[in-house]
Amino acid sequence: MDRDGLQRWLDRYVEAWRTYDPELIGSLFSDDARYHYHPWDDPLVGRAAIVQSWLEPGGSVSGRDDPRSWHARYAPLAVDGAVAVATGITTYVPTSRAPGRVYRNLWVMRFDDDDRCTDFTEWCMQEPDEAA
Description:
single chain; Nuclear Transport Factor 2, Chain: A; 6-stranded mixed sheet; 6 strands; globular
């Protein structure tokens, strides 16, 4: 994996999140991938489990996001062979039912020789409200 390859992977990840296309989601991960929604969680294990988790309502940590409800930007921070770290910002648009919120994310990943992620851990931090 190199920085350009990682940026392509990150862009595909965001597109998979936006579309919930099961083939695109699956193409990001190896057959035996491990996926941690939080660093303290037991991982999901295997491509099929990851795809299923993304697609089930409420299956991921917070359920499926309406593609119009958020904007995200992710970029490589570091790449060392098969290990990569990316940072990103996800901004949820305020609605009448929910306030807007901003998350800063750090993703730690490992890749195989086919640039499929074999291990993914998300470190997600919500920015404090401006009024706080």
